[in-house]
Specification:
heterodimer; A: alpha+beta; Immunoglobulin-like; 36% helix; B: 220 residues; Rossmann fold; Znf_FYVE-rel (chain A); Rabphilin-3A (chain A); C2_domain_sf (chain A)
């Protein structure tokens, strides 16, 4: 029959024509009649079913595996503190010059500290060139999970079965059976954050106050596991004293017990607790969120998810915790105060309130943090004058810029350029505003003009603004913003506030556009605890000034510590003859205590050796606690992490500080 | 096919100690040597007796590649037309395809284009394909030159190997190359498009436990 033949030659994977459909309908043999005339024999079916069964086993195992992967990431997420843009989202440490360095995660664009992040090398699209990016632990684990689960391929997570034992989410219903802690205990995934916490606890000079801070959390645990009378009594006592806004001095035994409980907290992997710790803290900040807990606590905890419990916790407890974290930060000794808990004391009276609305609260807070800009805001006003083909960009003001010196200030200025649709900068020369000194909230009020901007260009170009910190020895990046110019009209001024983002290729370009005629120097610093000395390794210099007639120099570096408590002698490197890019790799020791280093300044000057006449000055660099940006960072890293070399490039300034 | 009772298979299949799981599919005309190819790779065995595969079959093998343990679930499909509905159902989950023809069989070579169309129709668009000309040991009966095969592969934009399951030529190389390609694709896809990871959790693909990702509103 013609039909069968036609069908065999035709492409079976496209919709058949109307004629074919009509013919098939006449045959009354169903749609697939032409494909297989022979149904599967029973033994064939059996064989196929057995294969499908085998596959099901694998699929089930795979679903469980993916479930475990998901659970692992969820657990890490649970421990994220999310305290705001100035704190590490994972461990909650505040950033600053004397504190952990801020790293912006490539994926979530949130700030984390160095300890809670990893750097990975990734390849640019298909090219061999790699670039280093930083990811927070959550995002790196998420990436890993995407790879391992195959989600990268299917553009979404495949179906998975969550491991039954652990209720991994904060929204999990409180009916979930008993010992969530124990199930946590058994999991192989033990976060680095826990280890980190161990270090912090042990290192902290105020470890006892730290300990008692966490003891409240441990009280909950005690209440949960055994519902001991004295524990709940103690908590109740805490509430009472908080209500009276009295000062409370915790007795020594309590502190000891608390310290032990921290050990178990760390060892036992009861990480939910750490999460609840911070959730509770956030809770306390909300007005009127406090709830009394008193006796009911033990009962509540017995059958419930810890997160829920802690969220609905006494605000005084939260207050306590806030207090403790404050104490830890300011390194005050272990005395306890309830000075500002009076307000919350009023609301801390009812016991056992509804928990659902309050458990939502931290999430809202989280969302809020997502919207917070990391590096501050910039307000710009743009107008276009068609007759002149000129784009006038007014840098109005910037707010909440990162601090760059020990006093928490910066000297910001803006650099502007236009980015063409081909992703190039339109002008080779970047426009620059004046520097506004000693502020993190500068009012620039400066208009910069780009001429030669065609009206049709506006539609697909971007205005790029990068903010830098002005300093003699290199300009440190503060933040950058892109503004789409398509909304700019010739008739009216366009005013916009933009959040500042992290470094990218253009900001690097802007940074490079700044010329440093005096060249750069690579310096490695290390504080040697054995010799109690600062080790300065002068590695190399590049692009030095040419001072001699032969178009070259004979550079050497002089080093000096000022004001020097230990009366170290000045050092100098050997002379490298006839080069502008000398490599020294010479080490010098300056005896100093770490404490002294907080006040001292390392002054490096580069000179051109001239025989028979005085040496020519080539450039200078100062490193110390009074430095800014990268210099300060290196200096502080060196003190904070002794016995490690901290290496950085710095620009040389043209003035001689020793004069 | 048989193999379910094979203790080695069971060991490999039950092994949960791996980093990635890739599903691969071997397709091609009937009797080009798909099953032999798989048996050579998974069990290092060969038989010249021809037993037509019933529908589908798979084997599991865990390989170590780039410091990662990769578990391969390799599907062997029947080339015969009558099983097509079953085999095509498995295209969707496959990350890599080994498209095989027989260098001694002109027809199987001419069908390659059709198989590519099948892949395009049924698989995910980022599935990786390798073209394989099998039975290269049978030089005296060869009708498709290496050059023709390579040209076709170039034309299709895929990599090309000539193999022999009988003589164990290039069998391992094909799988290793395919794993490498998928690995590259994997790191590329995430590095090039990190929003993929972030945006995911609002879920194009819903999970059977929607409460599993409630705190995903944070986009991280």
């Amino acid at each position: 029959m013609d039909f069968a033949n036609r069908n065999n030659t035709a492409n079976k994977f496209v919709c058949p024509s109307d004629r074919q459909l009509a013919l098939r309908a006449k045959l009354k043999a169903g749609w697939s009649s032409s494909k297989t005339n022979e149904p599967l024999r029973p033994e064939e079916q059996e064989a196929i079913i057995s294969v499908i069964r085998r596959n099901e086993e694998i699929e089930t195992a795979e679903r469980q595996r993916v479930g475990r992967l998901v659970e692992r990431v969820e657990k890490i997420k649970l421990h994220a503190v999310e305290r705001g843009p100035n704190c590490c989202r994972l461990c909650g440490d505040t950033f600053g010059l004397l504190r952990p360095q801020r790293i912006i995660c490539e994926d979530c664009r949130k700030s984390v500290c160095t300890k809670c992040s990893v750097d990975i090398n990734i390849r640019y699209n298909n090219s061999e060139r790699t670039r280093e990016i930083w990811l927070c632990r959550i995002c790196s684990e998420t990436r890993e999970m995407w790879k391992k689960s195959g989600a990268w391929f299917f553009k979404g997570l495949p179906n998975y079965d969550m491991p039954r034992s652990a209720s991994a989410t904060p929204m999990a219903t409180p009916t979930g059976g008993g010992r969530a802690v124990q199930s946590c205990h058994g999991t192989p995934t033990r976060g680095a954050r826990i280890k980190k916490l161990t270090i912090r606890v042990n290192d902290s000079s105020s470890s006892s106050s730290n300990a008692s801070g966490q003891s409240e959390g441990e009280d909950e645990l005690d209440g949960a596991s055994s519902a001991k009378g004295n524990t709940s009594r103690e908590t109740a006592a805490a509430v009472a004293s908080a209500a009276a806004a009295s000062r409370l001095q915790r007795d020594e035994s309590f502190r000891l017990r608390a310290y032990g409980s921290i050990r178990s907290f760390i060892d036992g992997g009861e990480r939910k607790l750490s999460n609840s710790f911070f959730f509770g803290r956030q809770q306390g900040q909300g007005p009127g969120q406090g709830q009394g807990q008193g006796q009911g606590q033990g009962h509540l905890l017995a059958g419930q998810d810890y997160d829920n419990v802690s969220m609905s916790n006494v605000s005084t407890v939260a207050q306590l915790r806030r207090e403790s974290s404050f104490l830890r930060r300011s390194s005050v000794s272990s005395s306890w105060s309830f000075s500002d808990s009076s307000g919350s004391g009023n609301s801390a009276t009812q016991s056992q309130q509804q928990q659902c609305p309050t458990s939502q609260h931290p999430h809202q807070q989280q969302q809020q943090h997502c919207r917070d800009p990391l590096l501050g805001w910039l307000e710009i006003a743009i107008s276009y004058r068609e007759s002149f083909h000129s784009l006038d960009c007014t840098m109005v003001r910037a707010r909440d810029l990162p601090a760059m010196d020990a006093a928490g200030l910066a000297d910001p200025y803006c650099k502007l350029n236009i980015i063409t649709p081909e992703a190039h900068t339109k002008y080779t020369r970047w426009q620059r505003t004046k520097t506004v000194h000693k502020t993190r909230n500068p009012d620039f009020n400066e208009t910069l003009q780009f001429v030669g901007v065609e009206p049709e260009e506006l539609g697909n170009s971007l205005l790029y603004v990068a903010l830098f910190d002005d300093d003699k020895y290199g300009h440190d990046f503060l933040g950058a913003a892109k503004v789409c110019l398509s909304t700019v009209h010739s008739t009216s001024q366009y005013r916009i506030s933009v959040p500042l983002g992290v470094e990218d290729q253009y900001s690097n370009e802007a940074e490079m556009s700044q010329s440093w005629p005096n060249g750069k120097m690579l310096i490695s610093l290390c504080y040697n605890t054995k010799r109690r000395a600062l080790v300065v390794n002068v590695k190399q210099c590049i692009n030095l000034l040419a001072m001699d007639n032969n178009g070259s120099s004979d550079p050497f570096v002089k080093l000096q510590l000022k004001p020097d408590a230990h009366k170290n002698k000045k050092h100098k490197t050997s002379v490298k003859w006839r080069t502008l890019n000398p490599i020294y790799n010479e080490e010098f020791y300056f005896e100093a205590s770490p404490h002294d280093l907080n006040k001292e300044m390392l002054i490096l000057t580069v000179w051109d050796k001239d025989l028979g006449k005085s040496n020519d000055f080539l450039g200078s660099l100062q490193l110390g606690a009074q430095s800014k940006g990268d210099r300060l960072q290196q200096w502080l890293d060196c003190i904070r992490l002794p016995d490690h070399f901290h290496e950085k490039w710095h620009c040389l300034a043209p003035d001689n500080p020793t004069h | 096919m048989a193999g379910g009772g094979d203790p080695k298979w069971q060991k490999d299949a039950a092994d949960q100690n791996f980093d990635y799981m890739f599903k691969l599919l071997i397709i091609g005309n009937s009797s080009v040597g798909k099953t032999s190819f798989l048996f050579r790779y998974a069990d290092d065995s060969f038989t010249s007796a021809f037993v037509s595969t019933v529908g589908i079959d798979f084997k599991v093998k865990t390989v170590f590649r780039h410091d990662k343990r990769v578990k391969l679930q390799i599907w062997d499909t029947a080339g015969q037309e009558r099983y097509r509905t079953i085999t095509t159902a498995y295209y969707r989950g496959a990350m890599g395809f080994i498209l095989m023809y027989d260098v001694t069989n002109e027809d199987s070579f001419n069908s390659v284009q059709d198989w590519v169309t099948q892949i395009k129709t049924y698989s995910w668009d980022n599935a990786q394909v390798i073209l394989v000309g099998n039975k290269c040991d049978m030089e005296d009966q060869r009708v498709i030159s290496f050059e023709r095969g390579r040209q076709l592969a170039d034309q299709l934009g895929v990599e090309f190997f000539e193999t022999s399951a009988k003589e164990n030529v290039n069998v391992k190389a094909v799988f290793e190359r395919l794993v490498d390609i998928i690995c590259d694709k994997m790191s590329e896809s995430l590095d090039a498009d990190p929003t993929l990871v972030g945006g995911s959790q609002k879920g194009q693909r819903l999970t059977d436990q929607p409460q599993g990702t409630p705190n995903a509103n944070c986009n991280c």
